[in-house]
Design goal:
Low-confidence stretches: 1-9
CATH superfamily of the domain at 97-303 and 338-416: Cytochrome P450
Helix content: 40-55%
Oligomer: single chain
CATH class of the domain at 97-303 and 338-416: Mainly Alpha
Largest sheet: 5 strands, mixed
């Protein structure tokens, strides 16, 4: 179980023998110790081999330039059969387009991409703003409340329900399914039993299968289920339950975690760097740039992995066919060679804020990045109209997970102008 975060740095990062550093440990990410470990790896061994770990041997790629090079070469570095550092539990063979290479990856991604097309986002902005205003106007001024529950989860879950055209009154199910999807050995803290997790995933499959069949008789629409049904390459996906559920979970997690944890992370960052909060008060036009800086500083998804398809030399190291290569976006976003201004400092006016690694590169670059940025921009525009300060008023808890860089709770108090 997660415990209260009390420190950002961890001196143990420099006392552990280099060859024993294991960045798969979920506990590093709960305590924020990972920043110090990655800093050491960037300095001493930026292409680092971990011989023994709970997820088996793997290479850690920690520099921005190396990550871009590997993520841009999907022929040498494959996403199949799974793109996270651990492996799916035995017998669980879920599949989705982020675990695939072209051409199947391209076909399935293109089927749902219209939901985040510019014209659709323009239509969604008004709805997002309306919901943001309702959420913010309902916050208890002068009282302590949980930012994660009242704002971060509520806004993103409402958006997910809209994208799927999911029953709005049952939208909390989407949050639950997102939370359990990656709580598996080698990735998460395993706070839920395997049996309970599988029960939840089967509930998700049943619910979306029902929605699929109900929607077949309706006119074409722009929700994610309709887009899959009305694309020639994905119209029969329901007949392959493992791929259908895999893609549903991918879209749920992708539509939830980046925005949800960047909302909370932005509040944490502004409280840790009060002078930057004052810059924002003095010049709200910085909000768009600040959104990119939040996504860089927070890095809501910490890594993706690739499988080496052939023996190859990279950066003076010898990769063997089948090796597991992990691209640590969280490390790239603190790379001193990539960011001219101190990458550990949160700067709302950072000149390179948009050059972060949080959305990945190449064919797997995050499909919903513009939607995430839109929600965050609208939220902070409306926050700054109402509140001089969202104050973190107590210790908070973070997730113990090496993929989702998240917050379990965040006690805050709002101070109006």
């Amino acid at each position: 179980m997660a415990t209260t975060v009390t420190a950002v740095a961890n001196s143990e990062a420099y006392s552990v023998p280099l060859d024993q550093i294991d960045m798969s440990q979920p506990e590093h990410y709960r305590t924020w110790a990972y920043h110090e470990y990655f800093k050491r790896l960037r300095q001493e061994d930026p292409i680092h081999y971990c011989k023994e770990s709970p997820v088996g041997p793997f290479w850690s790629i920690t520099k921005m330039a190396d990550i871009i090079a590997i993520d841009s070469d999907n022929q040498t570095y494959s996403s199949a059969p799974f793109s996270l550092i651990g492996d799916l539990p035995e017998g669980e063979n879920l599949n989705n387009f982020i675990f695939m290479d072209p051409p199947e990856h391209t076909k399935q991604r293109l089927a749902v991409q219209p939901v985040v097309a510019p014209q659709n986002l323009a239509q969604l902005e008004g709805l997002i703003r309306q919901r943001v205003c309702t959420i913010l106007d309902g916050l208890p001024v002068g009282e302590t409340f949980d930012m994660v529950e009242r704002v971060s989860i509520e806004l993103t879950t409402q958006m997910l329900a809209t994208l799927f055209d999911f029953p709005f009154e049952e939208r909390s199910k989407l949050t639950y399914w997102s939370d359990i999807a990656l709580d598996v050995p080698g990735i998460g803290s395993e706070d839920i039993t395997p049996e309970k997790r599988w029960e939840g995933l089967m509930e998700c499959l049943q619910e979306f299968s029902r929605i699929w069949h109900e929607r077949k008789s309706k006119p074409p629409a722009y929700d994610l289920i309709s887009l899959l049904q009305n694309n020639e390459d994905t119209k029969n996906m329901i007949e392959d339950p493992e791929t259908f559920l895999g893609n549903i979970l991918l879209l749920i997690v992708g539509g939830n975690d980046t925005t949800r944890n960047s909302i909370s992370g932005g509040v944490v960052a502004l409280n840790q760097f009060p002078s930057e909060y004052q810059k924002l008060r003095d010049n709200p036009k910085l909000i768009s740039n600040m959104v990119s800086e939040v996504i860089r500083w927070q890095t809501p998804l910490l890594h993706h992995r690739r499988r080496v398809t052939r023996d190859v030399e990279f950066g003076g190291k010898q990769f063997k066919k089948g090796d597991k290569v992990v691209l640590w976006w969280a490390s790239a976003n603190r790379d001193e060679d990539a960011f001219k201004q101190d990458p550990f400092t949160f700067l709302v006016d950072r000149s390179q804020a948009r050059q972060h690694a949080s959305f990945g590169f190449g064919i797997h670059r995050c499909m919903g990045n513009r939607l995430a940025e839109l929600q965050l921009r609208v939220l902070w525009e409306e926050i700054m109209k109402r509140f001089r300060h969202i104050e973190v008023v107590g210790p908070f808890e973070r997730t113990s997970n090496n993929h989702v860089n998240g917050y379990l709770n965040l006690p805050v108090r709002v101070h109006p102008w």
